Amino acid sequence: MIIKPELVKKIKDYFNLNIYETKVWIALLGKGVASAGEIAEISGVPRSRTYDVLESLEKQGFAISKIGKPAKYIAVKPGVILEKLKSNMVREAEEKVQVLSKLKDSAEYSEIENLYTAGIKPVKHEDISGSIKGRSTIYNHMRELLENAKKEVIICTSARDFSDKIRLFSSLIERLSKHGIKVRIALSGNEQDVKKLAIKTKQKIKKIDISAKFFIIDQEQILFMLSDQSAAEEETAIWLNTSFFTSAMTYLFNQIWED
Questions:
Q1: What is the pTM of this model?
Q2: Is residue 31 a contact partner of residue 38, using CB atoms and an 8 Å limit?
Q3: Interval 66-88 mean pLDDT
Q4: Fewer CB atoms inside 10 Å of the end CB: C or N, the chain?
């Protein structure tokens, strides 16, 4: 049995194993049931290390120790391991979310919030701007800006993008409207799609023929995308916290809105 280096590398990353564990597990899968000596011969892992590695795999659920002598191990079906890893990951994520949810009530969080507030106060508004990379980071920043709006929000994007984020936009628009915050939405794309989204959100939505994606908050901050075709990790947005530029953009948007 020849163990391909490419397979070892990929399995190692997928299942979060070290190099010896990966080689031993692949060798055991190929044999079904085997002794440490047989596994050492097939995997190329030193025999003195094979015993420890097999014990490690057993603890992680990748192998089962067979009753009897000589000591042998049975491979666990990959599908069983995959489901177990998925369950573990979900459980760990849920636990992490619970920890993070309670973090805001901690003294440590209050301390770092105070540090941020104290550090940001002396800085000019126009200096609190920057480039944001990665779709998920942009998405979170956009949500933060919209949730903290006080007077007015302008949403300009495509019907497709708005539809993809409909749950977020619907809940945000509802919340903003309840607080008396003016929301204006302009979408590019198919006219029928725009009409459907207007009905779905119970909002007046303007169809525009300009392909752009930006969000203006209170005529003070603007977040705009540099491209609509980038991969998720490469997507880049520019965030500006300056009323000088943002009020000018709002003025131009108003011309389109009233046309």
A1: 0.58
A2: yes
A3: 86
A4: C
